[in-house]
Amino acid sequence: MDDRFKALYNYNPWGKGGFELGFARPNYTDKIYRYKGNRLIKVLIGQRRVGKSYILRQIAFKLIESGVDKKNIFFVNREFLDFNFLKTYKDLDDLFKLYKEEIKPKGRIYLFIDEIQNIEGWENAINSYSQDYMSEYEVFISGSNSSMLAGELASLLSGRYVKFEVFPLSFNEYIEVTKKKPSRDAFLEYMQGGAMPELFILPDYETKRNYISALKDTVLLRDIIQRYNIKDARLLEDIFIYIVNNASNLMSIRNISNYFKSNGRRTSYDTIASYIGYIAEAYLIHKAERYNIRGKDVISGVCKYYVNDLSFNNYLYKGYGYGIGYLLENLVYLELLRNGYIVYIGSIKDKEVDFVAIKGDRTIYIQCAFTLNDNQTMEREYSSLEAIDDNYEKYVVSTDDIHINSKGGIRHIPAWRLSEILL
Asked: Do the Cβ atoms of 112 and 94 come closer than 8 Å?
């Protein structure tokens, strides 16, 4: 048997065995599945190890359950060593032709290519398959870098793909995995741990810490250092550590550059900016711009960064005294992204609003507070929202397990119920 075909045989449902499906994530699979039956390229993007591979396999399994012949599934995970021979799009096309010759599938073929950014020129093959009107192909791909759909590629595939961002487990998914009841205690456990799917099959704290450390090293090395030929790997990691330790705080490239220079590091503004951009492209962090609520425009310069998963803080850099209120703010930000909102940091007069979340014609203002246990804290958190004179929704999110009455149209909602208002 050809070694290339043997790799396919080992990892496809028509071959050696079935798929390992992992924890069901219907929030993603149902949404993606609704787009089947056309030539749109379905693109899953997100940080390495957030579960994209499992979601692709779950979609393939749903297709088989719906009556699609197993032979019509072509599944490749470029991360597996068995597929190291897939260097370029020509190698991929040769493998696809070999599959068709050997298996002889009839009707529509469903192609699943996982971590496709590791195949040079992959867009040439994918664009060809999606536009081949002599055959019935439907394409699902995944990648771990947001830049894979930028520049010339965006023009090449313009109007022919739909993108789905995949995140670590939400609190609702955490509840499903752990079989806990939604509550303040469960949310605090979620906030003080991590939400990468594989964490939930690891036995203890030390094993989890080692896993997150290895994950961090892998993303930095394979998705950034090797991809962009980084010269100063130590600086790259130190920038990531700095952002993890200062997530949810206002910062600027200039301030970060000055911090490293004051500590004797030889670097430049442009280098710092580039490295932060690479870290964001690998989905380790997210950038939130400041937004002038009254002027309805973005304020350049100062911004906030949020970590894609709190495990980097909770397991690796816990000793830096990161405030627990900032952990809550980080989780609220991620939940807004999961629900498809464009998220800004609000500014009005001399006050800051934690989040301005926009989705279509809906705008939500959100203020985060770990607890509203005294009048002074309540006054501070509500006053920022009270300064906004429009009629959009306003919420204060906290971990308080008590009912707090609305005040001037501003509603309080416990953090573990946040998803209820975002649908």
From this structure: no
Q: Domain check: are 12 and 132 in the same one?
A: yes
Among residues 72, 54, 74, 106, the alpha carbon closest in space to that of 5 is found at 74
d(CA 248, CA 307): 9
State which of 165, 185, 209 marks the end of a domain: 165
Are 87 and 232 in the same domain?
no
Residues 340 and 246 in one domain: yes
Measure the N-to-C terminal CA separation of the chain; round to a whole number of Å: 51
Final residue of a structural domain among 140, 165, 190: 165
Q: Quote the CA–CA distance of 167 and 308 in Å, as a whole number.
A: 8
Cα–Cα distance for residue pair 206/208, rounded to 1 Å = 5
For residues 230 and 298, the answer to whether their CB atoms sit within 8 Å is no
3-state SS assignment for residue 352: strand
Same domain, 183 and 144: no
- For residue 43, which of 150, 135, 170 has the smallest C-alpha distance? 150
If asked whether residues 267 and 194 sit together in one domain, one would say yes
Number of domains in the chain: 2
Residue-level length of the chain: 423
- Interval 71-128: pLDDT, tens: 999 999 999 999 999 999 999 999 999 999 999 999 999 999 999 999 999 988 998 9
Helix then strand then coil, in percent of the chain rounded to 5, is 45, 20, 30
Domain hosting residue 380, numbered range: 171-422
Q: Checking DSSP bridges between strand 285-292 and strand 342-348, what pairing results, if any?
A: parallel
Structure tokens at 296: 């309805």
pLDDT for 322: 58
**Which tens digits make up the pLDDT trace of 182-215?**
999 999 999 999 999 999 999 999 999 999 999 9
Task: State whether residue 113 is helix, strand or coil.
Answer: strand
Same domain, 414 and 277: yes
Spatial distance between the Cα atoms of 171 and 334, rounded to a whole number of angstroms? 11
> Residue 362: which residues within 8 A CB-CB, separation 6 or more?
393
Return the C-alpha torsion angle 196, 198, 201, 204, nearest 10: -60
Output the pLDDT for position 143. 93
Report the candidate in 163, 160, 187 with the shortest Cα–Cα distance to residue 174: 187
Q: Which of 416, 417, 420 is nearest to 186 (CA)?
A: 416
The answer to whether residues 70 and 9 belong to one domain is yes
pLDDT in tens, 6-51: 999 999 999 986 778 999 999 999 999 999 999 899 999 999 999 9
Same domain for 249 and 117: no
